[in-house]
Structure formats: structure tokens, C-alpha cells
Amino acid sequence: MSLADQPHSSHPSGILFVVSAPSGAGKTSLVAALLENDPALSLSVSYTTRQRRPGEIDGSHYHFIDHDRFEAMIETGAFIEYARVFDNAYGTAEASLRETLEQGQDLLLEIDWQGARQVRERFPEAVSIFIVPPSLSALEQRLRGRGQDSDAVIRDRMGKARDELSHWDEYRYLVVNEHFDQALQELNCILTAERLRSVHQGLREQDRLRLMLGA
């Protein structure tokens, strides 16, 4: 369909960015920096049954709920994706995600590879990004540097990391977080490139294009 044939009221829906990484790869810090510098991007707040960590805010970092409520939301089909990781559960509410995108707001969803696979089944247009550490030894150093997890938990996370890393090729983009500033720049480039695709930019600039085309 040409631009002249499109309804004048057409407006672009938001872009859904899905970001995954092994625990300790630096995903949370990179996502925080992206959100701080990009007012056009907002974070999809997931539900989880895990305990709050120091500094986390309910409704901002996660919606912290108990296992019974989480199971009830599964039963009612509230989640577009959910997964159980390290004896805790995580899920994304579909209704709020769709509402945000329909309002034209770009949305970032920070989830693991299992959740990303479920989201892509329902949102094949989602832009998926996988972040990896420069090495497994660097990953272990970062986990220990947090000072939040026991040796047993760290061993479990390191064992899980190899399995998580094996799913890198399911994603559209791959970013190696060896140097934070470079990784952040690469993520910003991905966001810019996706926003400039004609399917999105054409609708944002439809009035300008109609004028030039005499439509």
C-alpha cells in the first residue's frame, strides 16, 4: 500500500525491544543507562515471586507478589510469558504491554531466553537483543562483586550461564559487554536503527511525505 492509500489518522505503534542476558552480564546496568538517556523508551515492569533486593522498588523494578497470586494470574491467562528460574517465577502481563505499545510508546522488556521465546511467538515483530559477558571468568567476578549471593547461588548461576549463552542465536542482535560505554553505544545504535525503519518512520513523517508527494 502506498502512502497515499494509507488512512491519514494512521500512527505508529511503539516498538517492543526484548533484552536478555545471563545473570551478571551487566544487562540491568545497561538497561538503566538506556532508560535514563532515552525519554522515548519505557521499561515493562514484570511480576516476580522473588524477594526484593536492596534498593529495589515495588512497581518500579518489579511487581513483587506471592506464589499464590502468581499462579492465579497464570490461570486467568494474564501473562504473555512467564518462567520459573532458581525457584522463583517471573511473568509479563499482556494487557498493559499491548496498551503501552498502542499508545506509541517504545517499550523495553528485560527477560530471560525462555520468556523471549514466548514473546516472539505472540510479537514476531519484537526486536530481540542478547547481551553476553566477555568471558565466563569475567561473569563470575561480576557475580561475586555484587556481594549479594552465596557461593552456592553463584555456582548455580554459573552452571546456568552456559545453557543461557547457547541461545544467543535466537536473537536479532548480539552485544558483548566487555566495555560498558561501548556496549551502551551499540545498544543506542540498535534503537536508532529500528526507529528509522520505514515501517515506523514513514508513519511518523507521513504528513511531510504526503506534502512532498502531493497526496
Automatic annotation (TrEMBL):
The similarity comment for this entry is: Belongs to the guanylate kinase family.
Instruction: Give the GO molecular function terms.
Output: ATP binding; GMP kinase activity
Q: Which reaction does it catalyse?
A: GMP + ATP = GDP + ADP
What coarse category fits the chief subcellular location reported for this protein? cytoplasm
Instruction: Give the originating organism.
Output: Lamprobacter modestohalophilus
Q: Provide the alphabetized UniProt keywords.
A: ATP-binding, Cytoplasm, Kinase, Nucleotide-binding, Transferase
Binding-site residues, ATP:
A21, P22, S23, G24, A25, G26, K27, T28
- Tell where it localizes: Cytoplasm
Q: What is its EC number?
A: 2.7.4.8
- Which NCBIfam families does the annotation name? guanyl_kin (TIGR03263)
Instruction: Tell me the InterPro entries matching this sequence.
Output: GK/Ca_channel_bsu (IPR008145), Guanylate_kin-like_dom (IPR008144), Guanylate_kinase (IPR017665), Guanylate_kinase_CS (IPR020590), P-loop_NTPase (IPR027417)
This protein's name: Guanylate kinase
Outline the extent of the Guanylate kinase-like domain: 14-192
Pfam families linked = Guanylate_kin
Q: Which gene encodes it?
A: gmk
